[in-house]
Design the sequence.
């Protein structure tokens, strides 16, 4: 979605779109992809012990932080999402908050991650807030999953799904002056899904969530035609859907 909205996304539009995810935590958790281990391994600084996962949703990235032994606090503005996170990851501390106002203590964390959510944030106030909660030299990690649209059939699929989280060439996230040395890392991978899963994945996206019934029916009809008739897949057949995960990191000045 950053490709479409990016830093020009005004705060009211960002709030309206982000509100699409207030409900449906169980559905979101079930159908949205996780993240490759490689992305967390690259982001997390040596010796890190504490992490804040901001915009954590249902805990897709929180899981990787916990698996690596970090004491993790997950923050999200949706109580519905956090309820799912608490159910699956009770060892994490889960709190209501936003990237601009986390409610967390000063200088308490070695790494702060924002996975699939920085485009919903106001980047400069969010940078100030996350720098506040990070220790000196702490790392800000920004992560995006996106469909690998260099694969022609995936490119067409992304258009049918209205998958807005496909970055344009040269994309670089905006971060505040509190951070330096912004660099990126790419992790290609494939998510095994059924055609039915791809349809449910589409239903978890903000375009579909905010659409009227006629638009939703059109999207689903186009998807069924593309997956079953055009590509020739059968219901229940595993499709290895190509993704790339782009991770960014910067250190607190």
Sequence:
């Amino acid at each position: 979605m950053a490709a479409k909205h990016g830093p020009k996304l005004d705060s009211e539009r960002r709030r309206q779109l982000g509100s699409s995810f207030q409900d449906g935590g169980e559905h979101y958790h079930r159908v949205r992809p996780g993240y490759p281990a490689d992305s967390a391994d690259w982001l997390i600084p040596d010796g890190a012990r504490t992490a804040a996962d901001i915009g954590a949703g249902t805990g897709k990235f929180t899981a990787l932080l916990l698996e690596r032994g970090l004491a993790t606090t997950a923050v999200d503005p949706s109580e519905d999402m956090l309820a799912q996170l608490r159910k699956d990851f009770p060892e994490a501390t889960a709190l209501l908050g936003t990237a601009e106002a986390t409610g967390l203590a000063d200088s308490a964390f070695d790494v702060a991650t924002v996975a699939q959510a920085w485009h919903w944030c106001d980047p400069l106030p969010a940078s100030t807030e996350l720098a506040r909660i990070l220790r000196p030299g702490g790392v800000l990690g920004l992560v995006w999953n996106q469909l690998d649209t260099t694969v022609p059939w995936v490119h067409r699929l992304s258009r049918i799904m209205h998958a807005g989280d496909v970055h344009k060439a040269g994309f670089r996230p905006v971060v505040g002056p509190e951070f330096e040395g912004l660099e990126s890392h790419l992790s290609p991978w494939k998510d095994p899904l059924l055609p039915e899963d791809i349809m449910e994945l589409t239903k978890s996206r903000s375009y579909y969530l905010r659409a009227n019934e006629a638009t939703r029916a059109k999207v689903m009809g186009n998807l069924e035609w593309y997956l079953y008739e055009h590509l020739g897949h059968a219901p229940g057949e595993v499709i290895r859907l190509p993704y790339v995960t782009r991770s960014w990191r910067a250190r607190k000045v």
